Every structure is written in structure tokens, then in C-alpha cells.
Amino acid sequence: MPTEAVVRAPALDRPELLAAPVAGALRALPALAALVEVAQIDPGLADTEAFCAAYGVLPEESANCVIVAARRGEETTYAACMVLATTKADVNSLVRKHLGARKASFAPMDTAVELSGMEYGGITPIGLPEGWPVLVDAAVAAAPVAVIGSGIRGSKLWLPGAAIAELPRAQVLEGLGVPR
């Protein structure tokens, strides 16, 4: 039983609930912005498991964005991986191979926060730095609705999974999300 009520509004009607890079990206992509709703949440409940329990969102409706650092020689590149909350990203195999890296791992929290301009626990694929691929699990792309971060811990975004798959630099990968 959810303990908190969710009141959603068009995302650009509530820019105070969006990280600056997210608001900027949505303003630049009006067709996407028309599909995205935002709701204020308790920042202490931003982590997926706590959020789903408190707000009555099913884990299969929630998608997590993880930032991966891929290394080849001295060069490090970054990518975002979107997987359902019921799965984890296959970083060491699929992501590493897809990015042509010798080694891939989750980016350090401080690095992900600094480079994305977003808060830890709220990082989202909307508004990430230019050049970062957005790898989307096929199950996320097929989801009728996906609840994702807004760039801050104090809100969440609701949008169709297909809209995530249409983000700039998005690539849908079968098998990106693997069982936990």
C-alpha cells in the first residue's frame, strides 16, 4: 500500500523539479517534453526500492540509469545504461563489447555527478553530456510507462519507454538488463 500520493504535471510546467541539464534538454526537444510528466517526491525515498514501496510504483515500471566508464588504453569514455529496476546492466560483457572497451565498470559516484550535472540517485538519460551513448534495454524501450530520475532526488519523471529509446544517441540493446 503506497504511503505517499503522487501528483504528476507536465515536466516543463515544474522546472524547479528538474536538474538544469534535464530542463534544458526538454526545452530543446519539445516533442519529447510533451510526453514527460514530473512528480515531486521525498528525496529520502529516491532510491528505487524505497520509492516503489512508498509510491506504489511497480519495479517493472521503474527504470534505472547507471553511468558506465569504458576504458581502452588511456582513453575513458562514458555511457548511460537504462535497465528496468528488476534487472542489472550487463556491464562486463555486453556493454564493454558494445563500446569497444578493454574494461568497463560503473563510473565513480563523484565522477558521474560532476560530469552529468545531476544528483546521485537522480541521474537520468535526458540531458546527459554530448557524445555519451544512451544504451537502452529492449524491455525499457517496450515499457508502456517508465519512471526514471529527473536529475534531482526530489522528483521522478514518467514517460513511455519508447520515448527513452528515441533520445539523441540512444541505442536499444537486447539483453542489456540481466536478472539480479
Give a structural overview.
By secondary structure, this protein is an alpha+beta fold. It has one domain (8-179): YbaK/aminoacyl-tRNA synthetase-associated domain (YbaK protein, Alpha-Beta Complex). It is built from seven helices and eleven strands. The protein has helices at 20-28, 30-33, 48-55, 91-98, 109-116, 138-142, 161-165, and strands at residues 8-10, 37-40, 63-72, 75-84, 87-89, 103-106, 134-137, 146-149, 155-159, 170-173, 177-179. The strands form three sheets. Strands 6-3-4-7-10 form a five-stranded mixed β-sheet. Strands 1-2-9-8 form a four-stranded antiparallel β-sheet. Strands 5-11 form a two-stranded antiparallel sheet. Strand 3 (63-72) and strand 4 (75-84) form a beta hairpin. The longest helix is centred in the first third of the chain and has 9 residues, at 20-28. The protein is globular.
